[in-house]
Design brief:
- The complex is a heterodimer of chains A (436) and B (228).
- With 436 residues, chain A is mainly α.
- Chain A has one domain: Ammonium transporter AmtB like domains (Ammonium transporter fold, Orthogonal Bundle).
- Helix content of chain A is 68%, strand content 0%.
- Chain A contains 16 helices and no strands.
- Chain A is globular.
- Chain B is mainly alpha-helical and 228 residues long.
- Chain B has 2 domains: 3-79; 96-227, no CATH class.
- Helix content of chain B is 67%, strand content 0%.
- Chain B is built from 11 helices and no strands.
- In chain B, helix 7 crosses helix 11 (199-214) and helix 8 crosses helix 10 (179-197).
- Classes of the chains: A mainly alpha (436), B mainly alpha (228).
- The A-B interface holds A 63, 209-212, 214-215, 220-223, 406-407, 410-411, 428-433 and B 142, 145-146, 153-154, 187, 190-191, 194-200, 202-203, 206-207, 210-211, 214, 223-226, 228.
């Protein structure tokens, strides 16, 4: 029982924030005490650590000859993405938003006070997460520098514009989707679907890896080089998710407990849902698929983790795990080569989670008007992110070139793009002695 | 003896050398009879089909068949080439199946074939060929089609690729090739292998080919990695 009046005040504020479906600091009662600041700063660190999770997950799923390249792209998302978000993205997303469409202030912000600074550092980690979803999908055949440009455009433009509609702004004005009542507490759509749709566009423009599909059209497995690394990556992601969702309260409130519980349960049921789908489809229970199911569960609960009761969080996670498998099959049938399953996990998981947040809204289950708003938000995310990302990657492909040369695919992108290899003891004989 | 008879006898002797390298004397003679009657007059270089028949008739395990194929290719390269350059090769038909049946016999000047780069290239190619042949006739057909396409990817004329691949003694197409062109050709073979067998299997074959090539004395002068 919460007998502390101050805590009650902030809890009410956080619940109001959840009802608004936004982690922005616009509502009163957030980021205004030292404990709020400490909690959000710690959450930012946890979200930062998710980059390590993505790096291990994607690096482990890649072949040894591409592991370094994949991890370099994760770093690039964080570093170049941070620059793009600071220069442009933050202003577009959280600047004064009187029209409801776009922020028009706070570009390259000075961040003179601690409140805005901690808000900024938390948001910059989110932006990097959206961008890094793409790196896993396009792994093993996309050149590094074009990827960097694409990543900067995702973090500096595609992600923040949609973010402005849902979470904008920091102080003045609300995005149009936020005004409609769209619920996406921590970013199933804003972060994950936007990243997932961008990944889909990149995958279509790039084409599949050499030999990924047999002449008959059947998809061939290209196993990752280090599955334990991949599993560790998902554990780290899962840990970071407590900060991703929990920190989105922007206040040290008791609501964090429910958010953490829902996050964890959905992740667990995502794993179980994937297992169940594998059994129903009479397939082996693969670890690689099962832990992707867990990530899909985590993605799905991100929208409704603050507004859903635990039984519905369980259901949301379970369905996400199964949907991820069906979406992976659909991708293979369409001959779309997504190395880590970014589209099934993040785009499809995000769509389902955002829909579920409307369906299972606590105290107002299955409200048709809320469900319609959720569908509008889901459709808008696709309509914005996919064509924009397609245009970006298509233009890069036609100008500076996006796809690595097939010789570089043979050698591996570690040596061809970075002139170093991840496992020199084992790979030296199979790679060229130097660059061309 | 006509020129054709001389060529037949030379090729038959090369086949026997190859068979003896991989089989005991009785089995080698029996296999030579099969080649002389069923293949020699019409399809002397259809090694894949010949070894497939041999595998069935002599109940050879697949690994042994691979060794027989390799020995035959090596024997043909070493002992079936005339000492002087013959007419320049006419480009083979792009239709891979036709190329597989009967490639034009063309020789390479010994000086060119003796280059360390060429020796390493030949060893890598032969090893890849054994791996692809072991995948069965369907894979071989798919590979031929993929190889014709891969020439574009690797900036190698498809005709040259098919010539090198299907007429293993016909290195003349690459007689004047520099190291970069050899590397392009090998890469085209890798691309076709990846399309046919999958990238994982292609990597394994290439890895094995490199290991085998590294065992050659020429690898000290020309490491296989220079062609990768």
């Amino acid at each position: 029982m919460d007998a502390n009046p101050r805590m009650r005040r902030r809890t009410r504020a956080a619940i109001a924030l959840c009802a608004a479906g936004s982690p922005s600091a616009h509502a009163a009662g957030v980021l205004d005490t030292p404990s709020d600041i400490a909690w959000v700063a710690m959450s930012a660190a946890l979200v930062f650590f998710m980059q390590a999770g993505f790096a291990l997950l994607e690096g482990g799923m890649a072949r040894a000859k591409n592991a370094t390249n994949v991890i370099m792209k994760n770093y690039a998302d964080m570093c170049y993405g941070a620059l793009a978000f600071w220069l442009l993205g933050y202003g577009l997303m959280f600047g004064a938003n009187h029209s409801g469409w776009i922020g028009t202030s706070d570009f390259a912000p000075d961040l003179a006070n601690g409140r805005s600074a901690v808000f900024f550092i938390f948001q910059i980690m989110f932006a990097a997460t959206a961008a890094t979803i793409v790196s896993g999908a396009v792994a093993e055949r996309m050149r590094f520098w074009p990827y960097v440009i694409g990543s900067m455009l995702v973090t500096g433009l595609i992600y923040p514009v949609f973010g402005a509609w849902v979470w904008g702004s920091f102080e003045r004005g609300d995005g149009w989707l936020k005004q409609l009542g769209f619920i996406d507490f921590a970013g199933s759509t804003v972060v994950h679907s936007i990243g997932g749709w961008s990944a889909l566009a990149a995958v279509i423009v790039l084409g599949p890896r050499l030999g990924r599909f047999a002449p008959s059209g059947a998809a061939r497995d290209i196993p990752g080089h280090n599955l334990p690394l991949m599993a560790l990556g998902v554990f780290i992601l899962w840990l970071g998710w407590f900060g991703f969702n929990g920190g989105s309260t922007l206040a040290a409130t008791a609501d964090i407990g429910l958010i953490a519980v829902n996050t964890h349960l959905a992740g667990c049921l995502g794993f179980i849902g994937a297992n169940a789908a594998q059994r129903v489809l009479n397939r082996p229970v693969l670890m690689t698929t099962a832990i992707n199911g867990a990530v899909a569960g985590l993605v799905a609960i991100t929208a409704g983790c603050a507004t859903m009761s635990p039984p519905f969080a369980l259901l949301t996670g379970f369905v996400a795990g199964g949907l991820m498998i069906l979406a992976t099959d659909a991708m293979a049938r369409l001959k779309l080569d997504d190395m880590v399953g970014a589209v099934p996990v993040h785009a499809v998981g995000g769509v389902w989670g955002t829909f579920a947040a409307g369906l299972f809204y606590r105290g107002d289950l299955f409200d048709p008007s809320r469900i319609i708003v959720q569908l509008i938000g889901i459709g808008t995310a696709f309509a914005w992110a996919f064509p924009m990302a397609y245009a970006v990657f298509w233009t890069l492909s036609r100008t500076i070139g996006l796809r690595a040369d097939s010789r570089h695919e043979q050698r591996g992108l570690d040596i061809s793009e970075h002139y170093e290899i991840g496992y020199p003891e084992f790979q030296r004989d199979l790679t060229h002695a130097g660059k061309e | 003896m006509t020129v054709a008879d001389a060529a037949f006898e030379r090729r038959k002797a090369a086949i026997l050398i190859g068979l003896r390298a991989a089989l005991d004397e009785t089995a080698a003679q029996s296999a030579l009879d099969l080649w002389a009657h069923a293949y020699g007059p019409t399809r002397p270089l259809a090694i894949v089909d010949f070894v497939a028949d041999l595998e069935r008739l002599q109940a050879l395990p697949p690994k042994r068949s691979g060794a027989v194929r390799l020995a035959l290719y090596q024997a043909l390269i070493q002992h079936d080439a005339p000492k002087a350059r013959v007419a320049a090769p006419s480009p083979p038909a792009i239709e891979p199946a036709a190329a597989a049946v009967e490639p034009p016999p063309v020789a390479v000047p010994p000086a060119a074939s003796d280059r360390p780069a060429m020796a390493i290239f030949r060893a890598l190619t032969m090893s890849l060929r054994i791996g692809i042949d072991a995948s069965g006739p369907a894979a071989q057909r798919e590979f031929a089609i993929a190889l014709a396409r891969a020439g574009t990817v690797a900036r190698v004329k498809p005709a040259d690729l098919l010539l090198v691949w299907f007429a293993s003694q016909s290195w003349a197409a690459l007689a004047d090739a520099d190291d970069a062109r050899l590397a392009d050709t090998l890469h085209a073979i890798y691309v076709a292998a990846a399309e046919t067998l999958g990238p994982v299997q292609a990597d394994r074959l290439l890895s094995r080919a490199v290991s085998e090539a590294q065992a050659l004395p020429e690898s000290r002068l020309f490491p296989p990695s220079r062609l990768l």
